[in-house]
Model the fold of this input.
Amino acid sequence: DQQVKQNSPSLSVQEGRISILNCDYTNSMFDYFLWYKKYPAEGPTFLISISSIKDKNEDGRFTVFLNKSAKHLSLHIVPSQPGDSAVYFCAARAGAGGTSYGKLTFGQGTILTVHP
Amino acid sequence: DTGVSQDPRHKITKRGQNVTFRCDPISEHNRLYWYRQTLGQGPEFLTYFQNEAQLEKSRLLSDRFSAERPKGSFSTLEIQRTEQGDSAMYLCASSLKPPRAHEKLFFGSGTQLSVL
Done:
């Protein structure tokens, strides 16, 4: 079963506009959420995260919003730049115990293309 | 280069052969993780180590798979009697011990395995 879902396989945006990437989850035990970015031939790199006790976290051009009641989170990139073109993965962690750290459940990814 | 390094980058093998991959984590990181990524999917957790102890294994890790981290530094992942379904990108990641780490995993570029 797919506990973390990214229903949009791809997104195309004009440079300077906002990119919104969405993610839905089903497991109520998830308490920490992350976004990773992946360029071709490289491993995923950490982008931004949010704890379930918050509903928003901002870091420069990147903002993550969490709606726990809807089990939905989104990543906003403003303004979008051509260098943001990559695959974006949503990930989640269940539980706050020591053994759960690093054991992430990933979505399928969304390919973002930012056109100049 | 002080990132996570994986060797080899690519491996082509025939069905039934054994293969071994190596991962060198960031030197001060005491946690090391193995993930597997197939085409169109996000990474899936396989196993992780804290220092030399293997603390958790996913049910995805059949008995043909074995991972070691003998001295708490580098790790190896061996697949015996490879099957075509083993074809995937094998990703290694490392992190500091929680709670300092949160979930900020640092991934290597992966080993792409093709089983013919």
The two ends of chain B are 33 Å apart (CA to CA). The longest strand of chain B covers residues 88-95.
